[in-house]
Amino acid sequence: MSNTNAEISLFDAAILRRAMGQAVLKLNPRGLMRNPVIFVTALTSLLVTILVLRDAAIGAPNLAIGVQVAIWLWFTVLFANFAEAIAEGRGKARADAFRATRSTTRAKVLMDPARRDIVVPRDAAALVEGDVILVETGDVVPTDGEVIEGVASVDESAITGESAPVIRESGGDRSSLTGGTRLVSDWLVVKVTAAPGNTFLDRMIALVEGAKRAKTPNEIALDILLAALTLVFLFVVVSLPIFAIWSGTQIPVIYLAALFITLIPTTIGGLLSAIGIAGMDRLVKANVIAKSGRAVEAAGDIDVLLLDKTGTITFGNRMADAFEPVSGVSEQQLAEAAYLASLSDDTPEGKSIVELAARRFQPRIEAAKGASFVPFTAQTRMSGVDLADGTAIRKGASDAMLRYAGAALDPALDQIIRRIASSGGTPLVVAEDTRILGVVHLKDVVKPGIRDRFAELRKMGIRTVMITGDNPLTAAAIAAEAGVDDFLAEATPERKLELIRAEQAEGRLVAMCGDGSNDAPALAQADVGVAMNSGTPAAKEAGNLVDLDSDPTKLIEIVLVGKQLLISRGALTTFSIANDVAKYFAILPALFVAAYPGLKVLDVMGLGTPTSAILSALIFNALVIVTLISVALRGVRYRPSSASALLSRNLAIYGLGGLIAPFIGIKLIDLLVDLLHLA
Amino acid sequence: MTSDLMQFALYCAVLVAVAVPLGAYMAKIYAGVPGVLVAIERPIFRLAGIDPHKEQTWQAYALAMLAFNAVGFALLFAILKFQDLLPFNPQHLPGLSAHLAFNTAISFVTNTNWQSYGGETTMSYLSQMVGLTTQNFVSAATGMAVAAGVARGLAARQKKTIGNFWADMTRSTLYILLPAAIVLTLVLVWQGVPQTLSPNAVATTLEGTQQTIAVGPVASQIAIKQLGTNGGGFFNVNSAHPFENPTAISNFLEMLSILVISAAFCFTFGRMVGDKRQGRALFAAMGVLFVLGFAGLYASEIATNPLHAPYVAAGSGNMEGKEVRFGIGNSALWIEATTAASNGSVNAMIDSFNPLGGMIAMVNIELGEVVFGGVGVGLTGMLLLVIVTVFLAGLMVGRTPEYLGKKIEAREIKLAALTLLIMPIGVLALSALAIVTGNAHGSVQDAGPHGLTELLYAYSSATGNNGSAFAGFSANVDWHNAWLGVAMLFARFGYIVPILAIAGSLGAKKTAPASSGTFPTHGPLFVTLLVVTILIVGALTFLPVLALGPIAEQVSIAAGQSF
Fold first, then answer.
1. Three-state DSSP string of A448-468
2. Three-state DSSP class for A386?
3. Is the pTM of this model over 0.90?
4. Which of A80, A351, A584, B372 has the highest Cβ tally under 10 A?
5. How many CB pairs below 8 A link A and B?
6. What residues contact residue A630 under an 8 Å CB cut-off, 6+ apart?
C-alpha cells in the first residue's frame, strides 16, 4: 500500500480545490436534508434571496445590506458543505490508494475443486460466493476467500504495507486470503467468501470514502437535539416580529433571518459529518478498518480491555535474563557453556542467551571451532553442541535434562528452578556432559513503556485484563510487572467468552482482539472486537474492526481514536451553543434600539451601527465554521487523563472560550465592516 | 438591609435543616412503608382494589396517572359548574361559567392554581374544600409520585417497572402531605388564620356602612396550597391578605413550606438512586439559581422606581404593591420562592415590582420551574435539563454521555428535546397568538412594555404551572381561560410523560459502574455547568422578548419615560 497511512496534509491543494466544487454540488436538497441544521440554513438563505430579489425589483432601500446578508447566509451553507467535502476528499484520497491495488484480474474458476487442471477464466467482478478458484504464483488474488487446499506465500503489502510475505494454508488460523494480495510462490485453491462488490477491499474503500456512511447512534442523538434547538429558536424568531409590532417597531424579515441563523447551532451542524469522517480517517491512518462508525464510537466507551499477553504485553519471546549456577560452578562457566550451546541456535531464546552471555562475559568463540550443533527435537526436548574435544553441552527443560544427566534432583538446583518458575520465568537447565552447571533464567520480557500505557488507561477509567495461557503463578508475576489490573490465566476461548459476559453483565463495555477461529465467539460478544488481519475469516467476520497490521497493541490506539472523536463532537457542540450569548448581545440591541433607545445598554460590544452589528454577527457565524474545520479534521487535542480533568480542560477552552471568543470576533469584524463601509 | 439578609440566611439555613431529614424520610416512604403504617393504608388499598406491591411499567404508571387526573378534572369541573346546586354555599354563589370552570379545573388538576377568579366572591365552601383542596392534595401527590417513579427508573438495573402509581400517590398524600398540612394548619390557626364554616361576618363601620368580612375554612387550604406548591389562595389577594398570612411567624412558615418538599426531593432522589452526592448536586444547582434570583429581586426592589423618586423618601425602595408589615426583604423572598417553586401564592403584587424584579420572577418560571419547582415535578424537570446538559457536555470526556451509569441515547434525547419546546411554545407562541388575534390589548391594564410583560407573565405562569398572576391582566375571558387552560395542560403532562418514558427506558438499560473515566455528575464543576446550561438554554430563549418587555421598561423609566 503506497500511501494509505501516509500523512495527508490538512489542506492539500488538490483536495481543497475539489472540495470547493463539491461544496456547491452539495447544495442538492436531497443531500442537505441529511443535516437538519444546514438544511434549515439553506431554506432561510433561499427565502432571503427571494426577498432581496423582490426588493431589487421594486427598488426598495437598504438593498446593499440585504444582498450582503443573503451572500453570507449562502456562505454559511457553503462553508458547512466545504467542511464535509474536505473530509470526504481526504477519505477519497486514501480510497484511491486502496483502489489502485485492485486490478481487473481475471479469476481462474475451478468447476471441479479436485481437478486443478481444468480452469475456466472469469472476470473477478463476476465471482459469487461459493465459487472455487485457483490462484497461482504471480497472480493477484481476485477476491476474498478461504484457502481449501495448498500452501503458499502471499505478499500482503497492498493491504498491510508489510513487505515480508506471509504463509497462507488450508485449515487452521492462516486460511484467510484477502483480495488484492499477490501470491509469490506455489498455488492455492480458494473458496470465494465475499459477494462481488462486498470484498474486504470494497468495504474498506466505501468506508474511507464516506460514501456509505451511516450516521452513528450518538450522531443521531446529537442531530435530534440540534434539530430541537433549531425549532426552539424558530419559535423565538417567528414570534419576535409580533412582539416588536406591540412595541411599535418593525423588524425586517432579512434581519430576523440573520438572527435565526446566528442562533441555531450552525457551527456544530456544519462540522458534524466532517468530524465523523475525520475520525474514521484517523483510524484508517492507523491501518485499522472499522466495519461501522458505531464500532469507533463504542471504542471510546470501553471500560475493560482484554489484552493477550503475548505480543501485546510481552514481546512474546522468552529472553535470557540471568545465569544461575549451582554451587561449585562460576557464573562465567555456566554462561560460556550456555553460549556455546546456543551459538547455532536460531530461536529467539537461543539468540538471547548468546547476546546476554556476550554482554556479561567475553566468552571464547574459538572453543566452538569444529563443533557440531545438536538441534532440538520433540523426543529429546533439548538442544546443544558437541565440541571438537568431545565435550557435549546440552540445554533444555529441567525434567529432560535430569533424565539426560541421569542425576537425582539436587535440592539447591530444585530451589533455583522453583524460584524462576514462580517469578514467571522459564528455567533452562544447562549441562556439560552429565554434569549440571546451572540454570538460565528465561524471562517473558514485558515491553518497555507498556506499564505507563496501562497507567494512562487506568487514569481514563479503563481496566486492563491480561489474557494468557500461562499458569496462574506465572501470569500473576507478569501481570504485576506489566501493571495490568487483572489477569485471566490458563485462558481458553470459553473462559474468555465467560469473562466478557461477566463484565458485560455488570454493565461494562469490553474490547478485545483475537485472530483464531476459536476467538470468533468472544470477538462477536465483545463490544469492540478487533480482528487481526492475519486471522481466520471467521475471526474477521466476528470482529467489528480489523487491524491490517495485526498488531494487538493497536487496541489501545483504537480506544483513543474513539474518545477523540466523541470529544471533538462534544467540544464543538459546546462551543457552538456558548457562542449564542454574544450573538444575542450583538443583534438584539440592533433590532430594538429604534423602539427603545435605552436598549443601547445591551450593546456591550459597542458595535458601529445596527446594520453593521447584524452583518458582523452573521459573518462571524459563517467564518467560525471555516476556522474550526482544522479542529474538526484533526480532532480536538487529547491527552489521556481522568474524566474530571478532561472536562475542566475542555470546558475552559470550548465552553468559556465559546462564550468569550465571539465577543472579540464580532467586534473585530464590526470594525472592519465599518472601515470598509459595508453597512 | 442587614436584617433582610440575615432573615434570608436564616431562611436558607432552616430550609436545609428541614429538607435533609424530610428527604430521608420520604425516601423511606417510597422504598416501602414501615410496618406500623401499613395499618393505615391497608384498608384504603383494599377498598380501592389496589395491590400496592404490583409494579407497573412506565406506560402503565403514566396511564394510571393520566386516568386519575382526567377523572379528577371531570369531578372538579362538575363541582364548580354546579356549586349553586350543592351544599355548603352559605353566600349562595352561582355556578361558574363553563370556560371559567374549565380553566379552574385544569388549573387545580395541573397543580398550577392559576385563578382567573377572586376566591371569596366566586367559590362556595364546598368548592373550596371538596373541590379545590382535594386537588391541592392529589395534584401535589401526583407530582410526587412521578418523581418517585422517575427516581426508581434511574436507580433500576435492567428492570422494566418503576413502581406502582396508586401506591406512590396514596402514600405521598397519607404520610407526607397530610401530616405536614395538619401540623401547619394548626400552627396557622394559632397564628390567627380563620378556620370556620360560618358565613361571612358583616360589620358596621364607624362611617355606618356595612362591610363584609370574608372568613371560611382558610387555614386548612393555606397549609396545603403552600406545601403542595399549589398557590391558589382562599382570598383573591392570596397571602397578602391578613387572614391568610397574619403574622411574621405565619409568613416565615408559609415561605418555608413553599420550598420544603421540593427541596427535600433532591435528597430523596440522592438516596433513592443510591448516591447522595447526586441529590446534593441537584440541590446545589437549584440553590445557586435561587440565591441568584433572590439577589436580583432584592437588588431590584431596594432601588426606588425612578419615576417615583421625586415623591418618596430616598432609600425607601420600591414599596408599591407590598405590605408594609412584610417590607421589601420578605416580599422579595416570598416572590423568589413562589416563582422558583411553581407555587404561585403571593404576599406582594408582582405587577408593582420594578421591571427587572418582575422579570426575575418571570424568568424563574420560564426556566421551566426547575429551581426547586413544583413538588416532585421540579426535580423531574431538573432531571430533564440534567440529561440535556450531560448530553451536550458529556461527550467532552470521550464517552457516550451517561447519567447515573445509564447511557443517554437517541430515545432519551428525543424525549428530553421535546420538553425544551414546551416553554417557547406556551409562552412565545401563545402570547404572540393572543396579540395577532387581538385578544391581548383588551386584557392588559398598561400600555407599552409593561403591558407586554403582563401578557407574557400570564402565559409563563400557566405554562410553568406556577399560577401566580401579574395583577393587571384580566384573564377571565373566553380566549385566555381557554388558551391558558391549554397551556397548563400541555405543559404539565408535556413534561411528566416524557420524563416517565425516559425513566422507563433508562431503567431497562444496564448500569455502567462509575470509574475515573465517567463524566462526574456531582461536584462544583458539574453544578456550574448545569447552572450555565440552564441559563443559556432556558433564559436565552426569552432574552429577545424580555428585552422588549421588562428590560425596555426599566431603561425607559430610568430615562424618565412612562407609557
1. CCHHHHHHHHHHCCCEEEEEC
2. strand
3. no
4. B372
5. 219
6. A10, A11
What was the pLDDT predicted at A162? 61
Which residues of A fall within a CB distance of 8 Å from B420?
228-229, 232
How many Å apart are CA A478 and CA A470, to the nearest integer?
10
| A546: phi then psi, degrees, rounded to nearest 5 | -125, 130
CB contact under 8 A, A646 and B396: yes
Q: Which of A41, A556, A566 is nearest to A276 (CA)?
A: A566
Measured CA to CA, the distance from residue A302 to residue B490 in angstroms comes to: 40
Range of weakest confidence among A30-44, A201-215, B73-87: A201-215
Maximum C-alpha span of chain B? 79
DSSP state of A8: P
Handedness of CA B408, B414, B417, B423 (dihedral sign): negative
- Which residue out of B158, B397, B428, B441 would a mutagenesis test of the A interface target, given it has the greatest number of A Cβ atoms within 10 Å? B397
Interchain pair A584, B544: CB under 8 A:
yes
The three cell numbers of residue B505 are 427506558
B residues 434-453 near A, CB within 8 Å?
Answer: 435-436, 440, 448-449, 451-452
Report pLDDT digits (tens) over A457-500: 888 888 999 988 778 888 888 889 889 999 998 888 888 899 99
Judge if ipTM > 0.95: no
Q: How deeply is A476 buried, as exposed, middle or buried, from its count of CB atoms within 10 A (0-12, 13-18, 19+)? A: middle
Cell numbers for A656, please give them.
Answer: 468559556
Three-class SS of residue B111? coil
d(CA A236, CA A211): 37
Bridge partner residues of A528 (DSSP): A511
**B409, A218: Cβ pair inside 8 Å?**
yes
Check: CB of residue A382 under 8 Å from CB of residue A400.
yes
| Average per-residue pLDDT for chain B | 91
CB pair distance less than 8 Å for A233 and B397: no
Give the chain A residue whose CA is nearest to the CA of B451: A246
Chain A residues touching B558 at Cβ < 8 A: 598
Cβ of B558 under 8 Å from any chain A Cβ?
Answer: yes
The kind and range of the H/E element at A552 are none
CA distance B116 to B481: 7
Residue of A nearest to B541 (CA): A236
Instruction: Round to the nearest angstrom and report the end-to-end CA distance of chain B.
Output: 31
Which residue, chain included where needed, has cell 490506539?
Answer: A557
Q: Inspect the interface and report whether the beta carbons of B395 and A599 lie closer than 8 Å.
A: no
CB contact under 8 A, B409 and A602: no
Report B:451-480 residues touching A (Cβ under 8 A): 451-452
CA quadruple B319, B322, B324, B326: dihedral, nearest 10: -120
Handedness of CA B457, B458, B462, B466 (dihedral sign): positive
Length of chain B: 563
CB A405 within 8 A of CB A436: yes
**Of A144, A202, A281, A308, which is the active-site residue?**
A308
Q: Do B539 and B97 touch, CB atoms closer than 8 A?
A: no
Q: How many CB atoms lie within 10 A of CB B467?
A: 31
* Contacts with A227 from chain B: Cβ below 8 Å: 417
The full DSSP string for B305-321 is PTTTTTTS-TT----TT
CB B266 within 8 A of CB B23: yes
Identify any residues that bridge with A324 across adjacent strands, giving them in sequence order: A439
For the record, the C-alpha cell of A24 comes out as: 456547491
The answer to whether the CB atoms of B393 and A236 lie below 8 A apart is no
Backbone angles phi, psi at A412, to 5 degrees: -65, -45
CA nearest neighbour of A332 among A258, A423, A243, A430: A430
Residue whose grid cell is 472560550: A657
Q: Is the CB of residue A563 less than 8 Å from the CB of residue A460?
A: yes
